[in-house]
Amino acid sequence: MYHQAPPTLVQLAARSLLRNQALAISALEDLPVELFPPLFKEAFAKRCTEVLKALVQAWPFPCLPLGALMEASDLEALQVALDGLDMLLALKVWSRRWKLQVLDLRNLHHNFWKVWAGNELYVYPEQAQTKWQKRSAQENEAGVEAEPEPPLKVLVDLSLREETLDPFFACLLLWVEQRKTSVQLSCKKLKIITPHIHSIKKILEQLQLGCVEEVEVNCNWTLPNLATFATYLGRMGNLRSLLLSHVHQASSIAPEEQERLVLQFTSQFAQLACLQELSINTVCFLEGRLHQVLGCLRTPLESLSITDSRLSESDLTCLSQSPSVRQLSGLNLSGVRMTGFSPEPLRVLLESVAATVKTLDLEDCGIHDAQLTAILPALSRCSSLTTFNYLRNPMSMAALESLLVHTVRLSHLSLEMYSTPLEAYGPQGSLHQWRLNQLRDELMTTVEPCPLFTETLSGLASLLGQAHARDLNVTPHKASVATPPPPPTASSIMVPAWACPACPKRLMAQYGQLPSWTSWFYLQPYPGPQGYVRFLVLEPYRDMEASGSSVVCEELCAFWRSWSLTSGPKVLP
């Protein structure tokens, strides 16, 4: 039976105080600081609106993380908080105990309410006061009239989806607009999913754009839309991450006008001195113009993603020579077709990022064996590489074997994804199972299976069966080079006897059941240098489009990266 923990003495004190709300309000000036968070939380749960307003006014910490308590778009709670701020702003003299500067409406900082205010992120000792607070205190002691209080700041994460805002944000924006001289609206994360750029211009004007750190534009915009947004982008001096997706080119725009609009956008990158992550997906204007973007970047990037967009060979050459990419930890060029390109630009690019790159995605780039052979020496020097995605590129068995030989000494590489070699297919494109088995036999002589896991799969099958994996078939299979396990079917995943038991368990812990992509892949674990477990992923090349592999791969990579971050290196027992 579940027993609820008894309330703490602090919680009991807060509940007792709220029985007389008038007394609670009058006691705030002398109330111990540690009672404010539990009293606020209790008053919020009981919707004691007058007490909440008074608590906002007398809040003794610089930040009130209200968003951690609110349900999504809690208009009533927002209105109570804004009324409390109005009471605070109406006062000409502030008590020394009243330190509220930031109302945080983001769904963050839940620990603040769990540990009252003992968290060092929120309890500011006297020496951590702002310069304004110190100066104000000194002036009050000297009998000097204090300066007007600094603006209050309201922090939000904005997602602009429709032409009209929901009532929550509409109320907030109207309130800020009416108090623009004393309140600043700051947004750290801005997401735009509306094609109507002109409908959000007023909202962008209200934001303190210099505080924006992450921007995602994921909608069908034309070049004129993008150029309109550029005027706001250039004012985001603290921007660290920019994702731009789906910009198409209207045929009615003259070439000269297109050039002007592109330049209007790309020139804004010179203002983004803090940019670290740049993602560009499915855009129309990059081909032949990548130098306009790279030439304006002022600092080295940590992550660069250009996907499903057309680039010229000269663009790739420019990319390989740019100082901005020499410290990349993530490089994604998936969907950038390189068929017919010289391999030299890609080889130079890999050499320039070899010391730092950890994640490399070259999915569906149309790279053929000759190009792959030319870049292998550079790839083998990517000493920090952890994940390599080379799916949806045609590859022979000889090329795959050569690739594995070159990457075998990369001590941090733990996930490799390749398409099934072309030799496994017949003239009509059908997958020959017997040939696939034969190729896997040959491959196992290159990557020796791990024989060190002795745990039987009966317990593992029982574990998986408890987590709603009804269609899952866990088939024990004795590992040997001569008799490799059969490939997975659409409703099963084969778990070889040498497979690391933690992998399915991690999947279960994160997803509650094995995610859809497990039915598409054959995962082959084998030992890497220094005892690391590496996983080789093979997927049928010709069935990739039908299987929706790009989404599948994103799920797999996201899971693998989260596992790597939370569990560290996968070391053999």
Describe the structure.
By secondary structure, the protein is of the alpha/beta class. It has a domain at 9-150. It is built from 21 helices and 14 strands. The protein has helices at residues 9-18, 21-26, 36-46, 49-57, 75-89, 111-114, 131-141, 167-178, 201-206, 223-233, 255-266, 290-294, 313-321, 344-353, 369-379, 397-407, 433-444, 457-465, 502-511, 544-547, 549-567, and strands spanning 63-64, 102-104, 152-160, 183-192, 214-222, 241-248, 277-283, 303-307, 330-332, 359-361, 387-390, 415-419, 522-527, 533-539. Helix 1 (9-18) packs across helix 3, helix 5 packs parallel to helix 8 and helix 10 packs parallel to helix 11 (255-266). The protein is elongated and about 85 Å long.
Keywords:
alpha/beta; elongated; 14-stranded mixed β-sheet; 21 helices
